[in-house]
Design brief:
Layout (H helix, E strand, L loop, with lengths): L1 H28 L8 H8 L3 H29 L1 H20 L4 H29 L3 H30 L6 H4 L1 H15 L13 H24 L3 H21 L15 H31 L4 H7 L1 H21 L1 H17 L10 H28 L6 H34 L7 H5 L6 H38 L7 H10 L12 H11 L11 H5 L8
Helix pairs in contact: 1-5, 1-6, 1-8, 3-4, 3-5, 3-9, 3-16, 4-5, 4-8, 5-6, 6-12, 6-13, 6-20, 9-10, 9-16, 11-15, 11-16, 11-18, 13-14, 13-15, 14-15, 14-18, 15-16, 16-18
Length: 546
């Protein structure tokens, strides 16, 4: 009877994991699913240049800016409840966005999807803790969670391309609805509620000023890129900087800050957070620009463009899955350094692409960079949390997760704006984007060639700048992570985990020890600082739990 009960409990846990993975996959995919769809969206809704950028990154901006706040809300009011509400709103936002008749409404629904998506990741991770009581099984489940999240980012454009070859652009968002419905039916049956005790109050002023400051700065950047400098954009941008400055000072004065900026005094932690931000920024921007390049410059169909994205997506996913084995062999530090230089080389491989060809260079670039992206997605949170004292692990992991989401959003905002500026300066000056230019009637071949050449130049500059930044960060990581500054070295981690599998010495260790620390922390035995959730700290989606 006991064996039968155990089998039934395990089956329920794995079914619960399967249900949770649905929303997780959707949140990751929706950060990239519109990349290949933008030419179709432009043809249907005729957005302006800055509206096009908002359509793409308003989702990631909303997720990143609210991730930590919703972690605290879930701890106070219940993770399962927040997960159900967030998933329902995500589904409604997806349906609304799929049928949006104007760019403004599409942006509004994408923001709603982002707000809902911010509830899903930390809540889904915390709910896993109630499903798997055995540390080893829980580590396996979190590993599947991490691989699913990484795969979602990679396959978003591929799935979009296949749908767009058969249906209208809204289909790439409407596919969320069946997954949401299945989750809402089975989640109440399979998932348990999770709450945390002793959660501090949510500082509404911090949430509002951080979101408003980011919004104002991004608006100024986008507007300047599309239309040039204006008094209004400068004033709004400076206002955003002032809000973010006030937000930063406030975090050092309040009892329960949203972001513990003191962690950035640790050089290893700072490198890890930048590593979480920059690869996703480069990946999202180049994926968006490359999708436009393949369709609007080389003239490929959306289905062919999607197929060309498959090799890079497969490499990225496999790299994320095998990263724990790589880390075991060469260590976290060497893995992170390898990631930066691999991404840099991959980005530089985009430079030979041109108007007359470049498919081979594109495929090679995505495959080589995919190795680095997959490693960085998997190892960042592990290094960030290992670099700080256990009492600050929750804040460290929440910041790592937030850096990933903001990188996805700000990558398009910043790098996409750079490409837009170059197109406006070097193009035929008939419209602010390539898509709008190509849609103009009566264009002569020389104008079309100039427009495509200006876009390719913008793609090359973005690839060059992003590649150079990764190379520089790789050199910095080589010095910081190899000069003894790592708070807990890879070899020390392994020895500590071997001698103290319950993590009693106080240092963060990955795998089953980290999961066990989570169990004790949830009872208050560690006294860990909670930012979002202690569970987020020990089971962040980009950790290496195997």
């Amino acid at each position: 009877m006991n064996r039968l009960q155990t089998t039934s409990t395990e089956l329920r846990a794995w079914l619960g994991l399967l249900v949770v993975l649905g929303p997780v996959l959707l949140v990751a995919m929706d950060g990239s699913v519109l990349f290949l769809a933008m030419p179709a969206v432009t043809a249907a809704l005729a957005p302006t240049a800055d509206q096009s950028l908002w359509i793409l990154d308003s989702y990631g901006f909303a997720v990143g800016s609210l991730l930590i706040a919703f972690g605290t809300i879930g701890d106070r009011y219940g993770r399962k409840r927040l997960l159900l509400i967030g998933t329902a709103l995500f589904g409604l936002g997806s349906v609304g966005a799929a049928f949006a008749p104007s760019p403004e409404l599409l942006i509004a629904f994408r923001v709603l999807m982002g707000v809902a998506g911010a509830t899903l990741l930390p809540s889904a991770l915390a709910v896993l803790g109630t499903l798997f009581t055995d540390p080893r099984r829980r580590a396996q489940a979190i590993g599947i969670f991490a691989a699913t999240f990484a795969a979602g980012f990679a396959i978003g454009p591929v799935v979009a391309g296949q749908l767009l070859s058969r249906f209208w652009w809204g289909s790439v968002l409407l596919i969320n609805a069946p997954v949401v419905l299945l989750f809402l039916v089975f989640a109440p049956i399979l998932l348990g509620e999770v709450r945390a005790e002793g959660v501090g109050r949510i500082d509404a002023a911090s949430v509002l000023t951080s979101a408003a400051g980011l919004l104002a700065v991004m608006y100024a950047v986008k507007h300047t890129a599309a239309a040039g400098f204006s008094v209004a954009s400068v004033v709004i941008g400076l206002g955003g900087v002032a809000l973010l400055g006030w937000f930063g000072r406030r975090q050092g004065r309040i009892e329960n800050p949203l972001i513990d900026f003191g962690l950035f005094r640790n050089r290893v932690f700072a490198v890890a957070i930048v590593t979480g931000f920059l690869p996703l920024a480069a990946w999202s921007a180049t994926a968006y620009l490359a999708g436009t390049y393949l369709q609007s410059v080389l003239g490929l169909s959306v289905s062919d463009a999607a197929l060309l994205a498959v090799p890079g997506a497969l490499v990225l996913t496999v790299a994320a899955v095998v990263t724990p084995a790589i880390v075991t062999r060469i260590g976290r530090s060497a893995a992170l350094i390898t990631a930066h230089f691999s991404i840099a080389i991959g980005l530089f491989l985009l430079l030979p692409t041109g108007q007359d060809g470049g498919i081979g260079w594109y495929v090679a670039a995505t495959a080589v960079a995919g190795i680095g992206y997959g490693i960085s997605f998997s190892v960042v949170a592990d290094i960030a949390v290992a670099a700080v004292p256990p009492a600050r692990a929750g804040s460290a992991a929440a910041l790592a997760e937030t850096g990933n989401e903001l990188g996805n959003a700000l990558g398009i905002a910043l790098f996409g704006s750079l490409a837009a500026v170059l197109f406006r300066l070097n193009g035929p000056d008939l419209a602010p984007t390539l898509g709008e230019t190509l849609s103009l009637p009566g264009l002569v071949p020389s104008v079309l060639e100039d427009a495509r050449a200006a876009f390719v130049d913008g793609l090359h500059v973005v690839a060059l700048v992003a590649g150079a930044l990764h190379a520089i960060l790789g050199v910095i990581a080589l010095r910081v992570l190899r000069d003894g500054a790592v708070a807990v070295s890879d070899s020390a981690d392994a020895e500590r985990e071997r001698r103290s599998p319950r993590g009693d010495e106080g240092a963060f260790v990955s795998g089953s020890a980290g999961v066990e620390r989570e169990r004790r922390s949830s009872r208050g035995e560690d006294g860990a600082f909670v930012s979002g959730s202690v569970r987020v700290a020990e089971t962040a989606p980009f950790s290496t739990p195997w």
